[in-house]
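Why should sequence recovery work at all? Because a backbone constrains its sequence more than one might expect. Tight turns favour small or flexible residues, buried strands favour hydrophobic ones, and helices have their own preferences. The token representation captures these environments compactly. In the example below, the structure is given first.
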């Protein structure tokens, strides 16, 4: 296609008058409908230990909810806290607790220069937490099996201000990267100048497979314990994209010392979580097999949408120099790479054609993609027909922006 053809097709696309918001990876209404039974599931309010779920208490979650997440995360229930509906809120609070109170046996971070390592591209809301709390962020490039570990090991060994690192170990947002066993064991074993260094292990997409292969990632809490750094990793997960986004249940898992630390500080801010929702979730999902069955239904809805994006991108962008996109085996995103300097313009042109995308640069700390190349594509929310159209519009916008 010549540039004139591209321009004509883009103009024709604009005339369709599409209005699509693809800025976030939200579940579609059809996915939310899968959880219909969740809402009519509660027969009785008594938990396994006799707790009346309607009343205050249960700071670390109902025993059966801790057991469910323990089974899902492959950790003892005693090392799991189930609290609230948002894992992001638990991440935020665990950082705030470090800032205000310090980790067990350590001084608070507040008032000192604090740095987090941020594998890029990464999740914009992780970076927003750091920015809001005054934590400096340092980019670490992502490779095929996880972050560049030579760089990570060097940085954490020499800089005691590096207190944390964001990790989305499976089907990362947005690159779909899955951490290799070697990366997990190096993260667990590496020497850090800061004795209270923490891995913020966001397992948001642990169950969210798109392909037939169900990839697994090594157990970071066990690896850290085996390496003599039992308190290093804090794992986060939720059912936001298993049941209901915003009305699911969220969990944190770590060493016994970190769980006790969490309980001490979180009990100041609440007399107990919503245990009705926990009970309802346990009765609906039951166990790991129950979760896997629900996730297969999500996969059936999501996979064709990812395939539609790949097909349109291949048709319009295949073979164009400097353009590539990821083919994730799970998660919610495709990372589209434009030639250097073209991502912002592509997003702008897509918006003019009625498609709202995540702002270019959002997958980088401070919103700055040094090469202006990455665009996060979120295929989940639009209908199958819409997503195909949108992918074509985005691809045409990219070719126009790149002049290729
Ligand atoms: N972590 C990652 C990597 C995500 O992509 C998202 C949502 O898109 C979340 C966390 C949000 O999780 P929650 O709904 O449990 O707060």
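From this structural description, the recovered sequence reads:
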């Amino acid at each position: 296609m010549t540039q004139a053809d591209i321009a004509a097709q883009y103009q024709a696309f604009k005339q369709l008058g599409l209005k699509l918001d693809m800025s976030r990876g939200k579940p579609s209404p059809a996915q939310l409908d899968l959880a219909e039974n969740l809402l009519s599931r509660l027969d009785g309010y008594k938990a396994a230990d006799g707790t009346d779920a309607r009343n205050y208490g249960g700071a670390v979650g109902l025993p059966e909810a801790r057991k469910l997440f323990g089974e899902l995360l492959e950790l003892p229930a005693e090392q799991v806290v189930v609290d609230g509906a948002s894992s992001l809120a638990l991440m935020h609070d665990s950082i705030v607790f470090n800032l205000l109170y310090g980790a067990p046996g350590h001084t608070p971070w507040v008032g000192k220069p604090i740095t987090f390592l941020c594998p890029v591209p990464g999740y914009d809301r992780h970076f927003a937490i750091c920015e809001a709390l005054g934590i400096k962020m340092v980019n670490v490039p992502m490779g095929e099996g996880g972050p560049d570990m030579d760089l990570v090991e060097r940085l954490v060994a020499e800089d005691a201000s590096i207190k944390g690192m964001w990790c989305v170990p499976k089907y990362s947002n947005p690159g779909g990267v899955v951490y290799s066993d070697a990366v997990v064991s190096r993260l667990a074993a590496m020497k850090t100048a800061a004795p209270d260094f923490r891995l913020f292990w966001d397992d948001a997409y642990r169950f969210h497979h798109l392909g037939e292969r169900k990839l697994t990632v090594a157990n970071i809490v066990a690896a850290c314990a085996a390496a003599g750094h039992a308190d290093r990793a804090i794992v986060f997960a939720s059912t936001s994209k298993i049941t209901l986004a915003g009305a699911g249940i969220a969990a944190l898992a770590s060493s016994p010392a970190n769980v006790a630390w969490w309980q001490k500080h979180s009990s100041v801010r609440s007399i107990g979580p919503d245990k009705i929702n926990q009970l309802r979730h346990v009765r609906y999902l039951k166990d790991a097999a129950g979760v896997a069955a629900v996730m297969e239904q999500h996969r059936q809805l999501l996979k064709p949408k990812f395939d539609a994006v790949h097909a349109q991108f291949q048709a319009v962008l295949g073979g164009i120099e400097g353009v590539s996109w990821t083919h994730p085996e799970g998660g919610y995103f495709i990372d589209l790479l434009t030639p250097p300097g073209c991502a912002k313009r592509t997003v702008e042109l897509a918006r003019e054609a009625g498609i709202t995308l995540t702002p270019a640069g959002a997958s980088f700390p401070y919103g700055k993609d040094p090469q202006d190349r990455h665009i996060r594509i979120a295929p989940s929310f639009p209908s199958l027909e819409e997503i195909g159209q949108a992918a074509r519009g985005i691809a045409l916008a990219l070719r126009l922006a790149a002049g290729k």
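A few observations help interpret the result. The chain has a mean pLDDT of 96.
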